[in-house]
Fold each of these.
Amino acid sequence: MDNLNNQTSKPKRKKTVFIVILAILVILFGLFLYVGGYKMLKGLYDDWNTSRKAHEAIQQYNEFLDQYYKTLAEDTYGGKTPQETLDMFVVALEKGDIDLASKYFALDDNLSRKELSDNLKKLINDGRLSEILQILKNAEKSPKDLAGTNSFQFVTWNSDRTLVEHTIFMQFNRYSQVWKIEGF
């Protein structure tokens, strides 16, 4: 019979010990929260969350850069020299192929040519195509020394060559290795 009492008291003792340990843990956790543990845990969580968001932002930025550079590398309309690109642009305009002519424009920061294309279309719609072609055909290398840069300028002069009337800005696309028209 003593054996039977021992067997029933062991589970009771284990249960009591478990309840006491659980109560101590709950009390310790309550004290932890009371003395600032919550603020510490919240601070750790906030730091982790900020770090996670920064990592995601960096990842998105890197993906954008990859796409940006890929698009620049695929932008192959243009010549190996500024003059070649200008000549190709003139030929496209003479043929009336405005879409092809627009492809010789440099991409802006938004990977678009829309602003330059719209300006070109407006000039053509205003009946100024022959004037544009005359300017482009009379353009010559700018006296500004831009040697060693990825920029180039063509200019046209007034009749006594004392004043630059028009400037055509060119930019070298180092990703596709062609010259592009940046503005005129």
Amino acid sequence: MNSPDTDKVFTGSIPKCYEEYLVPLIFEQYAADLAHRLAARPQPVTRILEIAAGTGVATRKMASTLPENVSIIATDLNQPMLDLASAIGTIRPVEWRQADAMQLPFQDARFDAVVCQFGVMFFPDKSKAFSEVRRVLRPGGVFIFSVWDRIEENDFVHTASTALESLFPEDPPRFMARTPHGYHDLAVIARDLQAGGFSAPPQISTVAMRSQARSARIPAIAYCQGSPLRNEIEARGKSRLGEATDAVAAAIAQRFGHGPVDGKIQAHIVTVEC
């Protein structure tokens, strides 16, 4: 049942739950960090490509932070995610476009910067995707992306995964550890970048932040219903989604309290020059 084929599927009600629950829980903080890093570049960027943009949290932050002369093209493999991102909109126009990171539909040396917030982990061939990024970057351009650190460094999702192991002892859903938190080895990242054509060594910062919610049920809904973890849970029985969400909420409440909850999140921010 643990099929990576479903790891990239953000369809049905997942995009809405992702935007409503998961974005404010773990993504907004890092989107602000990404926009700040771009704004602080010594050589200003004017053409940005975002890959795996999801519902547009980083896109919105870049559009509101960077000068209006900076053009942004935001892409994602999943059209339902882009449809929601476009419907939410941005403070100024950006271009939304469906695209596969394995084969970017852009000419060589077109962009000053390529960014990807928590999407690299989903690429089936990291080196191939990195070679595509390298191809569309102009000389002197920059690639900035973020990946989650190991699951044990991220409180709510680790608690959720442990709870699901107890609920499904014979075949626990392992999407979170396998994919979102499965690409944290810095040596592997550096090797894959080199294989993709980046000769400069990457600069990697490990950044810890806090994840907060009004109750334990919010992160439970976020992870169980707002990510492809839902696909794995429902593969074990459509009726078990509510049961799984309840089990995760109870585990988070037991560890972090029955009122507002606060947990650590941690990610690696990778910057590599072209």
Amino acid sequence: MGDLRIERDVVIEAPVEVVWRTITEPDQIVKWFADRVELKLEPGGEGYMGFGEHHGGAVVVETVDPPKRFSFRWNHPAGEEPVPANSVLVEFNLTPRGAERTYLQVVESGDELLAWPDAEKDRYADEHNGGWADFLGRLGGLFVEHRTG
């Protein structure tokens, strides 16, 4: 079994408050991440993130600390409350880099605690590692297009 913790980062050409809205507001999240988003932005808030016709699931917000940190849990069994042993934690950490740039780090962890076969954990980590690279590229591209277009 490989390293299951996923860490990705990007520097975005936008102020931290703008990036915060883009990663926490459903009408903004659909521009770079999920196709369908419902989200109650408060600790314990429930929501849904859908990816295409057949993929998606419930999310539960864990941390809301504007404009520095946002996290949620997902991939927990239907009908169960998400806890570290049955779900994956996704954390967004934002750090201003001057007035017009933001360093964003995304960490997805907890895969190793799930009651999945090792091969499934490895597959999940591989898919999500590549997926986060694509999603953060799209997110950064929103601001590059905006500034040059």
